[in-house]
Task: structure prediction
Amino acid sequence: MSLIDQKQSPILGVEIEDFLANKQLSLEATADQNLAYQNAGYVIIATLTDYAPDISYFDTSSVQAVIKDVMSINPDALLVMKSTVPVGYTKKVKKQFESDNIIFLLSSYGRERRFTIIYSFTNYDR
Result:
């Protein structure tokens, strides 16, 4: 978290490193859910989801837990799922949590350009 607070990326990636270093941001890393979610305009959900191919099952419990936590603290936040989830999952959780503020952002990989979440959020006109 200290790296984020210093505008340095804890992961390697040209886009994220450039974004943190060169954009004017109001960003603070925290492990406190209330502090993190209470005034958030959007929350990116990027948790691990295990897939068991022998039973064709995705374990989406980590995604569900984040949705539940955010909804209890800030139901107006836009929840952006980046985790791998099964087809129809977004529709299911929108109904379950009675919210249209839940979306799934699919990463696409092209021949010439790789779209990352940073690119997707900063170039949303496409």
Observations:
- Strands lie at 42-45, 50-52, 57-59, 78-81, 102-104.
- Residues 61-73 form the longest helix (13 residues).
- The chain has six helices and five strands.
- Residues 1-31 form one domain.
